[in-house]
Amino acid sequence: MGQTALVTAGTGGIGLETALGLAKAGFSVIVVGRDPERGERAVERINAAVRPSTAGAGNLAGLGIPAAARFFAADLGSLDEVRGLADRIAALDEPLTVLVNNVGAMFPDKQHRNGVEASFVVNHLSPYLLTELLLPTLAAHGPSRVVNVTSGAVRVAKRVFDEVEPPGGYYGFHWYGRAKLANLTYTLDLAERLRGTAVSVFAADPGGAATDMTDGRMGEPRIVSPGLRLLWPLVRRTFERATSGPASVAARPSIVAATDESLTGRTGLVIGPKATPVPPFPRATDPRVVEAVRRLSERHAPVAQRDPDALSS
Length: 313
Known about the structure:
Layout: E1 4-8, H1 13-24, E2 28-33, H2 36-50, H3 57-62, E3 69-73, H4 79-90, E4 96-101, E5 112-113, E6 116-117, H5 118-140, E7 144-149, H6 172-193, E8 199-204, H7 226-229, H8 232-242, H9 247-250, H10 252-259, E9 269-271, E10 277-278, H11 287-300
Parallel strand pairs: 1-2, 1-4, 2-3, 4-7, 7-8, 8-9
Antiparallel strand pairs: 5-6, 9-10
Helix pairs in contact: 1-2, 1-10, 4-5, 5-6, 6-11
């Protein structure tokens, strides 16, 4: 039986290119997203690229050939739907060996999901919860890998995690970076927690690309703090350069983290924009930040206690 990879937010942009790369590497890929039409188009593109002579999911099914890709619908901004997705994946009779948490969103205006600030939900709590719920499944089919997509925006984030919402005003880019910093902290902490087990954990920094998330939103001064607005022409040019590359290049760090044989037996690495390991952002390994992020995660996305021996290799 072949191996299965799950890619969240896999119907477009970096996620779709990641799913395409994993399918070409031989994985049966499940792409997750909210929109069934986008999901269907993504699946058709992946299946056509991997098996061009039998393009289309319908043709593949009619010939008795397993599809290279499938679409599972879920709103990853809803922790209830994340739990439902995890149950659905865990119930599959196939080996899940790669989980790529590619989901990410930046909100120009403050929003909430079930009473919790939306950026923190989508960029951290959602991948945190999905990962924790699927760890037993990943361990059962190990060696397996978790890849969490991070961002250079962590460098401009507030680093106080006493509560979900930091003190001060709402600035979408900084709050996005703060949520990504929480997830990077969790990623590196999880790698240490699982060191010596069947599950390896990596962060992948795509470096930036032209995607639905960056289209139009990076040109609004209100997404940054007042201090950066004073330098807006320079900041805007920086954003434009950082989000002008192709998604296929930005997907390479995730694909490498998920598949590269040289990473076998390793864990806790950040794979940078050039698809090679880079030093982690120092604050992501600060014990005080690690503990604060752990408390927030457990409070807002609780997971039932499990037997640690279940994750042993």
